[in-house]
Design goal:
Helices cover 22% and strands 27% of the residues. It is an alpha+beta fold. It starts with 18 loop residues before the first helix and ends with a strand.
Length: 143
Amino acid sequence: MLFPKKVKFRKWHTGRQNAKKLAVAVDTRGVKLSFGSYGLKALVYGRLSSNEIEAARKAIAKYATKSGKIWTRIFPDRPFTQKPPEVKLGKGKGEPMGFVAPVKAGRILFEIDGVDDKVAIEALKSAGTKISVKTKIVSRNMM
């Protein structure tokens, strides 16, 4: 599971935004393939937990044999808190439960290279099912 070695603040502000603004939010960084020949691109905004990222990475690694190389282009560095069940309101903010990676539309999540085209597409399709945001497979030929 991915998480930062050290954080400056244990708890972040919730960072609420208008849902309409988030629906049209488009990323400007990390939107092009930089390393591999195929990539998995997010189409909508979402927060990916470290468990989701790890599950997708394992799904890709299953297809990428010794010759294949995988790049993970996102990192969960945002802590989220949660209160225990059946606790009344008030009494402060909950304890940190884990880390998430906020992802806007257009962001490349994973890249793969060194494997056959069909294998790469199958690997990324498998990884896309593990993630809670809509994704699409992009390649250098398409861009």
